[in-house]
Write a structure and sequence with these properties.
The protein is mainly beta. It has one helix at 32-38; strands at residues 5-9, 12-16, 66-69. A 3-stranded mixed beta sheet has the order 1-2-3, with no helix packed on it.
Length: 77
């Protein structure tokens, strides 16, 4: 994942988030017959998985600095 881009232009702090990243992962498992021959137990495996993540960016912003971003921002004092 790429990091956020943070730039200061005068008294304006610009925050640009990276584009979302989609990954497609394929998994393989042994067939039931092969597991029987090799003496291993067949395992139940999930057919598909999805996960969403987020990045957090903690900044201490001086008073008088305006924050601008195209992405949603939550301010905590």
């Amino acid at each position: 994942m790429k990091p956020h881009r943070v730039t200061l232009e005068g008294n304006v702090l610009l925050i640009n988030a990276p584009e979302h990243l989609n990954l497609e992962v394929g998994t393989f498992r042994r067939e039931f017959v092969v597991s029987q021959i090799l003496g291993e137990h067949a395992r139940a495996e999930p057919r598909s998985m999805s996960s969403t993540g987020s990045q957090l960016l903690y900044l201490r912003i001086p008073s008088g600095v305006e924050v601008q971003s195209k992405n949603p921002i939550t301010f905590v004092e």
